[in-house]
Amino acid sequence: MSAFDDLMAFQRETEALAQIAGRLGWDQETVMPRGAAEQRGEEMAAMEGVLHARRIDPRVGEWLETATAPDEVGAANLRHIRRSFDRTTRVPARLAAELARVTSVSQGIWARARANNDVDAFLPTFRTVLALKREQAAALADGGDLYDALLDDYEPGATGEGLARMFGALRPRLVALRERLLGAGHQPAALKGSFAEEGQLAISTALARAFGYDMTRGRIDKAVHPFSSGSGNDVRITTRTNPDDPFNCFYSTIHEVGHAAYEQGIDQAHLLTPVGQGVSMGVHESQSRIYENQLGRSAPFTGHLFGLMQETFGDIGVADAAAFHCAVNRVNPGFIRTEADEVHYNLHVLLRFDLERRLIDGSLAPEHLEEAWNTRFKADFGVAVDKPANGILQDVHWPVGLFGYFPTYTLGNVYAGCLDQALRQAVPDLDDQLARGDTSQATGWLRANLQTHGGLRPPRDTIRQACGFDPHEGPLLDYLETKFAVIYRL
């Protein structure tokens, strides 16, 4: 066997073990008994130790020195393996294992603190997580920017400064649009009533299937924070229910199906290789957001959803499909990012992006984070945070050490705006199809032009190849302004 063949055989085993480690995380979020948290932390630390050892195995370095890629896919795999090897060898095995152990335990502590609205109960653990992440960042940065070193885990090639410039271009038009909508004379009515969990989950499953989720290679469970896990032929998603807000369940499901469809849609020839998974979180978010918003919240598709709601719940107190579409897209400066409308969503992300950069550079101490959060939220949303579960404790990302993850949500929105523009040019009768609940041509176009390629190309190149132009914030802003002007009769 050649050096390339030896390397790829070794890498496939590493990828398989990483999938098993991911399954431990899925189990922890869904069905693991609460009393197993400490043991699970040890199990995940042990698995991380095994993975870390494989990723820094000297043979990987030797194979990389002599391996020759047979084709474009092979070259992409070598690029990913080399990048992972270079980054992983900078992080001591002790630190990698400690991060896995502490963040696993931290997740349970955060969940209890969130339930009790007790920031003080979480702060000691959070200080430990932050200190470990800053240590990891220093090892990865090798004298460079700490935040960029962490960001590179989620969006290779992006920088904090570059994203700050993009977000700076987004913000003025978003703020102006927000003010116009909240000050408009016509304010759409919200959906009211109580909707049983059984009915919500039935519609949730129907929506997942409608958007192409292959249930023979996946499953839907409940979790505190919806997520997607796995790749290839075992891609699982979670959702959550609220009797007063069925949209939370429906659009969490569609969002996670977007992630899952990306992983399920990758060419099977790339299974258990670095190319056989999404190339970045920004590109991943482009799929979840275009599924959820440009497709799932469109007037034609919400008309279809309106019919499903009536079939399941009877009279839901909404006059017609047009009023239902307005209710789905109602703009409201709420506290929760995952429940936010499309206009406010990115303001949630920008808040977190700015605060986590300060946490990593040391200019914001953990004990001052809640005050900084609440002050920024009041300034951006015009309302005061009423409790920590609606503020600093709402997201799982920081408790489990995902610093650098948040900005990829807005980057995904930007990418989704570009993809939607290209999709509508390619499928001119898209709205007619969505009105029938048929997403097959839309999801098929995304699969053929983006998903099937997995990690073949760098993130921005992946979007550029699919869209035919360089990604920028313009299409997203134009889409939002056009859509909401109609809903609010501006």
Strand % is: under 5%
Number of strands: 3
Which class of the largest domain in CATH terms? Mainly Alpha
Whole-number average pLDDT? 95
Query: Terminal Cα separation, in Å?
Result: 67 Å
> Which parts are unreliable, with pLDDT below 50 for 5 consecutive residues or more?
none
CATH architecture of the largest domain: Orthogonal Bundle
CATH topology heading of the largest domain: Neurolysin, domain 3
Biggest sheet layout: 3 strands, mixed
What is the total domain count?
A: 2
Fraction of helical residues: 55-70%
- Gyration radius from CA atoms, angstroms: 22 Å
Strand order of the largest sheet: 1-3-2
Summarize the structure in words.
The chain has 490 residues and is mostly helical. The chain folds into 2 domains: 3-144, no CATH class; 160-487, Neurolysin, domain 3 (Orthogonal Bundle). It is built from 20 helices and 3 strands. It has helices at 3-30, 37-55, 58-66, 72-88, 93-116, 119-141, 146-151, 160-182, 197-210, 246-265, 281-295, 299-313, 321-328, 342-361, 369-381, 407-426, 430-435, 440-449, 459-467, 474-487; strands at residues 220-222, 228-231, 234-239. A hairpin with a 2-residue loop joins strand 2 (228-231) and strand 3. The termini are far apart. The mean pLDDT is 95.
Quick summary:
This protein has 490 residues and is mostly helical. The protein has helices spanning 3-30, 37-55, 58-66, 72-88, 93-116, 119-141, 146-151, 160-182, 197-210, 246-265, 281-295, 299-313, 321-328, 342-361, 369-381, 407-426, 430-435, 440-449, 459-467, 474-487, and strands at 220-222, 228-231, 234-239.
